[in-house]
Amino acid sequence: MGGRMTRQRRAVMRALAGCQDFVSAQELYALLVAGDHAIGLTTVYRVLRELEADGGVDVVRDERSAAGANGGTSRARRATGEGGRLYRLRPADGHRHYLMCRDCGRSRPVDSEVVEEWAGRIAADTGFAAVEHTVELTGVCADCLPRTDGCRPSGDEGEAPPCHWDRAPDPRGRVRSCAS
């Protein structure tokens, strides 16, 4: 990854590494401030833009509506509102595609070799160069599906838990912090 390794960049990367799922810039900022890092929200956005340009983060859009899949308020409603960008540290093995829960925000990488091959084929067939693509898959995870017995299924055995967001003391109750 390019870019100068500043104190702020290191702090943002550490905070991103501590979360299993995608997070907004505002959530990341709240994590950093809660961890006593002297950093501004503008700096967080700048570092995230640099990391994106360097291929250091995967980015998805947060287009979930205020109502979750269960008809109530989404537990994963981001402080940015609809259309915000969510970030996740990119794994060492490179670019991935994810399936994201529209209710809780949990994400899982999916096998996307066929998408990569298709994008390469389109580029070759059309003569375009430097072709980029965006594939976003969303659904409702098993834990968020409504159950008639009032129970929710548990996650897969041995699976790393997602980054759970708990409300931090904010007058508007919108800023969250990572509890895992």
Account of the 3D structure:
The chain has 180 residues and is α+β, with helices and mostly antiparallel strands. Residues 65-82 and 152-180 have low confidence and may be disordered. The radius of gyration is 18 Å and the shape is flat. Helix 1 (7-17) packs across helix 2 and helix 2 (25-34) packs across helix 3 (41-53). It is built from four helices and eight strands; from the N terminus they run H-E-H-H-E-E-E-E-H-E-E-E.
What is the structure about, briefly put?
The protein is an alpha+beta fold and 180 residues long. The chain is built from four helices and eight strands. The C terminus is likely disordered.
Spell out the blueprint of helices and strands.
Layout: H1 7-17, E1 23-24, H2 25-34, H3 41-53, E2 57-62, E3 84-89, E4 97-101, E5 107-110, H4 113-126, E6 137-139, E7 165-167, E8 176-178
Parallel strand pairs: 4-6
Antiparallel strand pairs: 1-3, 2-3, 4-5, 7-8
